[in-house]
């Protein structure tokens, strides 16, 4: 998916005063291309330092599964960044939703897909509640979702203690282990088997396509972006901005629930700790990918690439057996370098674009 | 035909194609090797993976290095980068496997879902030992070599009751309430208190204060301010509360008998200075050394006589009187554990 930008809110310059001629931005100025190059360089670097980086079964398949989870986590944050809002409860929404899924599998014995739908509904519901509170009270989304996060933290622990006496459901719904262990290479038609891509990857791809189409093609998505770009102008244009705020937060909750499900599938357990590590990566992936914190512009492809970059760095440094302190230090440094290079590329591209031909 | 209609037809066809392909597919039978075996000691690369950074696991580093040289293993590594996050620990284990490590001694972050991780490793043919903590429910690792936390908590509570003169009020300080091991520790302390026939009362079990030293210090300060004069004994079954209560009681000068856990320098200084009445030591060195030994044997083709068996790695009550001799007891227990593996627990053809 490409970058989606809301129409410019300011009026176009009058025809009598044409802007100075500018060159079109070169291809390398695309921030997604920049990320792709950084990822390619890092993959080449890590592969040359440790051949284990290219091990398909032990490195590449788990890496794809991890990227799937964190790309969807990034999309959950992107859904509200489109408004210029934040969802500080993204992890706890995932935890509450996976609790609902675990409960449905454990107590009702529902099939995998039905439990997933139950969890998605809970996620969307709690997200919509956050959106409703923000829209009705006018309180900043940061404050509302932070408060919600605290509340859900306690609620999730109480619910797990009540339902399981511990922190995890022991239930393994049919199909979960296939999602966890299998890749398409395990499924063959005659002699031809699929690629070594984990089964969770298409779920994340479908989510990314859905979100991309929403913001690019659907009226709802365009109206959310316009609300994020300039709420007053959007309101005056007849867009029901309150309902768009609720919709964007519901989408964020739904995607958080999906990320929780993918992580539960990867870990093989529906537990209270799901979502604990979601918050920072949820911002990192979209921001690295060019989504604006101020709202009005999102990049789904960039978010996927941002998630890929962080997971590649983490996996590479892990394989090189960095110590705990070194691991944190180098993840910070590599991210800083990646962001700086990206900024440098953007500045060079802008200069080149505005320089006289 | 409009572009939109074309794209809709295209997507419909793609979905149909995908559905029919999936329906026609058959699943390959699992080709992963389920059994380890046949590896010489020099080919065995052991990874000792705690749940995160914690003083308890530091002896694993040296114990692993000793095991490597004594047993002539291919390699022994110690990796504490899991950061108390089960997802990260799973990732660390996969990365270690990718680097050629083929036998795993793991302290699972979450006893409630570590079994999935153990199954994952065993599917790939790696022998796995659950070290220093057993999973909740049936153990899916080859064996669990851990302190019997209920016995250790019982011993600690008994030591506290003795130090209190057999009567008075006792407080239990421990870790994460929703951890199944914490529930067993609470059961151990309650058992010792019940045996006094009402002479000792357990007035409070304070949980969830082992996350860091600061939260433990705050909880201890609050406890001493509120109930300090009613308390005759404190039994700790977690590291941070032990350090915090030794320090808190020393500063408040209250006549409370503190039973600590492990042999952190602060705790040993407290024992020498008298602010700690006793400490319950565990056997991390034995866990790493004997765990590595058992993993080597399993890699060489031995099997467990009883798969998933739980073995107590030992716990010892240390007071000021036996402060200098406890290391010899620990070494003897470690040696006895290794013999137990050779004699009863392992089946080698």
TrEMBL record, chain A:
Residues 1-21 are annotated as: Disordered. Keywords: Cell membrane, Membrane, Transmembrane, Transmembrane helix. This is ABC transporter permease. PANTHER family: ABC TRANSPORTER PERMEASE PROTEIN YPHD-RELATED-RELATED, RIBOSE IMPORT PERMEASE PROTEIN RBSC. It comes from the Bacteria. The chain crosses the membrane at residues 33-55, 67-88, 108-135, 142-163, 197-215, 245-263, 283-309. It is found in: Cell membrane. CDD domains: TM_PBP1_transp_AraH_like (cd06579). The keyword Protease does not apply. It is a multi-pass membrane protein. InterPro entries: ABC_transp_permease (IPR001851). Residues 1-14 have a biased composition (Low complexity).
């Amino acid at each position: 998916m490409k970058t989606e930008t809301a129409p410019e809110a300011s009026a176009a310059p009058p025809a009598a005063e044409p802007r100075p001629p500018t060159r079109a931005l070169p291809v390398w100025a695309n921030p997604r291309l920049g990320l792709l190059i950084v990822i390619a360089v890092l993959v080449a670097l890590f592969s040359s330092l440790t051949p284990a980086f290219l091990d398909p079964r032990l490195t590449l398949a788990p890496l794809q599964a991890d990227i799937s989870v964190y790309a969807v986590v990034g999309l959950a944050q992107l859904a509200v960044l489109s408004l210029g809002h934040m969802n500080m409860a993204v992890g706890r929404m995932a935890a509450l939703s996976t609790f609902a899924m675990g409960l449905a599998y454990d107590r009702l014995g529902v099939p995998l897909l039905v439990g997933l739908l139950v969890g998605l509904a809970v996620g969307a519901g709690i997200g919509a509640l956050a959106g409703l509170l923000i829209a009705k009270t006018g309180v900043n989304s940061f404050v509302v979702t932070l408060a919600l996060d605290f509340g859900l933290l306690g609620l999730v622990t109480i619910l797990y203690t009540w339902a399981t006496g511990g922190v995890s459901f022991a239930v393994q719904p049919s199909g979960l282990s296939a999602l966890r262990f299998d890749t398409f290479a395990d499924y063959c038609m005659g002699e031809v088997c699929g690629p070594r891509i984990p089964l969770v990857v298409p779920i994340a791809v479908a989510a990314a396509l859905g979100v991309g189409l929403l913001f690019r093609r659907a009226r709802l998505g365009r109206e959310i972006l316009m609300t994020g770009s300039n709420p007053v102008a959007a309101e005056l244009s007849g867009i029901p901005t309150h309902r768009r705020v609720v919709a964007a937060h519901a989408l964020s909750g739904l995607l958080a629930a999906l990320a929780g499900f993918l992580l539960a599938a990867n870990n093989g357990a529906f537990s209270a700790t799901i979502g604990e590590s979601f918050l920072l990566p949820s911002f990192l992936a979209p921001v690295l990918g060019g989504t604006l914190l101020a709202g009005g512009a999102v990049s789904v492809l960039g978010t996927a690439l941002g998630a890929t970059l962080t997971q590649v760095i983490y996996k590479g440094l892990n394989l090189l057996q960095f110590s705990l302190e070194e691991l944190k230090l180098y993840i910070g440094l590599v991210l800083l370098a990646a962001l700086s290079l990206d900024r440098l590329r953007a500045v060079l591209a802008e200069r080149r674009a505005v320089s006289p031909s | 035909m409009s572009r939109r209609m074309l794209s809709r037809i295209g997507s419909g066809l793609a979905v149909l194609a995908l559905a029919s392909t999936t329906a026609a597919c058959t699943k390959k039978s699992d080709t992963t090797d389920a059994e380890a075996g046949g590896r010489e000691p020099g080919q065995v690369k052991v990874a000792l993976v705690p749940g995160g950074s914690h003083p308890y696991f530091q002896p694993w580093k040296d114990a692993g290095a000793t095991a490597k040289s004594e047993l002539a293993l291919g390699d022994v590594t110690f990796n504490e980068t899991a950061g108390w996050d089960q997802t990260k620990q799973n990732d660390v284990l996969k990365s270690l496997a990718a680097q050629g490590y083929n036998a795993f001694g793991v302290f699972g972050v979450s006893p409630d879902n570590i079994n999935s991780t153990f199954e994952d490793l065993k599917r790939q043919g790696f022998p796995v030992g659950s070290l220093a903590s057993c999973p909740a429910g049936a153990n899916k690792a080859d064996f669990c070599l851990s302190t019997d936390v209920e016995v250790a908590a019982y011993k600690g509570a008994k030591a506290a009751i003795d130090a209190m003169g057999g009567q008075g009020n006792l407080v239990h300080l421990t870790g994460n309430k929703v951890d199944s091991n914490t529930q067993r520790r609470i059961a151990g302390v309650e058992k010792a208190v019940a045996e006094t026939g009402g002479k000792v009362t357990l007035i409070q079990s304070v949980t969830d204060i082992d996350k860091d030293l600061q939260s433990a210090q705050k909880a201890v300060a609050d406890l001493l301010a509120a109930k300090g004069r009613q308390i005759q004994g404190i039994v700790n079954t977690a590291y941070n509360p032990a350090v915090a209560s030794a320090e808190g009681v020393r500063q408040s000068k209250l006549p409370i008998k503190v039973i600590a856990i492990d042999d952190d320098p602060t705790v040993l200084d407290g024992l020498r200075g008298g602010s700690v009445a006793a400490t319950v030591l565990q056997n991390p060195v034995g866990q790493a050394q004997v765990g590595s030994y058992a993993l080597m044997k399993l890699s060489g083709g031995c099997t467990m006589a009883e798969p998933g068996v739980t073995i107590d790695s030992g716990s010892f009550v240390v007071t000021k009187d036996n402060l200098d001799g406890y290391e010899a007891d620990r070494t003897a227990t470690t040696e006895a554990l290794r013999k137990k593996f050779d004699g009863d627990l392992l089946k080698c053809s």
